[in-house]
Amino acid sequence: MTHHQRLLIIDFGSQVTQLIARRARELNVYCEIHPYQKVTERFLRDFAPQAVILSGGPASVTDEGAPRPPAAVFELGVPVLGICYGQQVMMQMLGGRVERGHGTAEFGRAWVTPTGEPLDLLEGWFGQGREQVWMSHGDHVSSIAPGFRVFGTSPGAPFAITADPARHFYAVQFHPEVHHTPGGRKLLENFTRIAGFAGDWTMGAYRQEAIRKIREQVGDKRVICGLSGGVDSSVAAVLIHEAIGDQLTCVFVDHGLLRQGEAEEVVTMFRDHYNIPLIAADESERFLGELEGVSDPETKRKIIGRLFIDVFQKYAGDIEGAEFLAQGTLYPDVIESVSFSGGPSVTIKSHHNVGGLPEKMGLKLVEPLRELFKDEVRALGRELGLPESFIRRHPFPGPGLAIRCPGEITREKLEILRRADAIFIDQIRRHGLYDEIWQAFVAILPVKTVGVMGDGRTYDYACALRAVTSVDGMTADYYPFSHEFLGETATRIINEVQGINRVTYDITSKPPGTIEWE
Ligand code: XMP
């Protein structure tokens, strides 16, 4: 994609390099992260960055063969910001000196105070006389490079902020990209402003560019897109449809493990609202048939995964002239990561439920979201007119209700589960809690318990409510509902859903638990 103004982030393996990109994108600045091994002089020339940021990293510049950017970075005539390791490598390459820790290591919160001389990078800083920053360094700069002056110091880092203002080279020992450096955003904003970024990386502009690029790539060929009902594949589908119209066909597989009303919702939205050619494949008989009698979680997942590929291939194979498969791959899935254990490494996660399909079917990929973070995909979805309720939907796993139905899956249990789940979600929406929660659902338990309703004895299923907060699904905590909310929800489920007579609330965090029950 051609972006007129690009920020290059050279990655030296810091855990938080992605955050630099996030912050830049929040400032409407287009940026890309590339591992230092890949950034050659030639790469720099082709990329033509408007500014460069050197990330932090775990290595020590005092080590032989420590990672470095090409010297040409400092000859481009563009602003350069070095962060932590990036600061040290910059100092060393430009003629300063870096030494090993020896009592000057600094980790965590620190306070930087100004030296008095003003600096464009620090505009809006030091209002309180000092700024809180987040440090994480063992080595330190012991003498700064020619042309540099000191603009901020901390107890452990006499050269916390240095700069060569004439060349627009800036070097900071702390991490401005993390939340624990509250003024970090301002600093990065100043940097991009100094570099002359217009801040024109908006989803409106992205939409136009993406459409042009899809048209260019696809020509007059046909594209298949597997819709899951999730945000990524939906946004990809709507965007591609806007670009090439009815050359796109979507395939939506109903495996019989969807939530209440979900299949209808997807069909209504895509076929009726967006007029996108859609094959809605009701394959529930086949999936539920093959799952009969299976209770082992891994076996369930394998059966569902295998059938999904089979079914998708069958329907996609019927679409004449299809040469492309659309996928909702996101930027975090494709960022190449720096590894110090075994040389350069590339981490590309297998994506969605159609992994391996493109090769098998000889299809080329269309991945219009490859450059976006999740929150940018949501912004693009809004730009494309997808309803807010859809964009903010909680994640839903590919194997669907199968993994919320521990033990054997039966149609009866699935029906009970759907109804209980719909009530739980309704309760959460009514109480205005939906957006605070990462994911919420009901699991139907493979036990029946005794109860009493009216004058009669009942012997029905127990269910568990699950609701968690999380940032990325990797770790999670249970949501602290009020007792009133839990009581009211339990009463509604037991009164309104025949087949459940006991409701429990799952208060396990992740780890040690997982979000799903299987
Ligand atoms: P766990 O249960 O591992 O789930 O804590 C973490 C997140 O991943 C989702 N999940 C899946 N998503 N296919 C998916 O597309 C799967 O097989 C799958 N398993 C778990 C889960 O819903 C949660 O958001």
What does this structure look like?
It is globular and about 85 Å long. A hairpin with a 2-residue loop joins strand 9 and strand 10 (157-164). A nine-stranded mixed beta sheet has the order 2-1-3-4-11-10-9-6-7, sandwiched between helices. A five-stranded parallel beta sheet has the order 14-13-12-15-16, with helices on both faces. It is an alpha/beta fold and 518 residues long. It is built from 15 helices and 20 strands. 32% of the residues lie in helices and 24% in strands. It has helices spanning 17-26, 41-47, 85-93, 184-194, 203-218, 231-244, 262-273, 284-291, 297-317, 331-334, 357-361, 374-383, 388-391, 411-430, 483-496; strands at residues 7-11, 31-35, 51-54, 80-83, 97-99, 106-114, 131-137, 140-143, 149-154, 157-164, 169-172, 222-227, 248-254, 278-282, 322-326, 364-366, 439-453, 456-469, 477-478, 500-505. Helix 5 (203-218) packs across helix 6 and helix 8 (284-291) runs antiparallel to helix 9. The longest helix is centred in the middle third of the chain and has 21 residues, at 297-317. It binds xanthosine-5'-monophosphate.
List the defining traits of the structure above:
518 residues, alpha/beta, nine-stranded mixed sheet, five-stranded parallel sheet, binds xanthosine-5'-monophosphate
Task: Offer a concise description of the structure.
With 518 residues, the protein is of the alpha/beta class. The protein is 32% helix and 24% strand. The strands form 4 sheets. It has a 9-stranded mixed sheet with strand order 2-1-3-4-11-10-9-6-7, sandwiched between helices. Strands 14-13-12-15-16 form a 5-stranded parallel sheet, with helices on both faces. Strands 17, 18, 19 and 20 form a 4-stranded mixed sheet that branches.
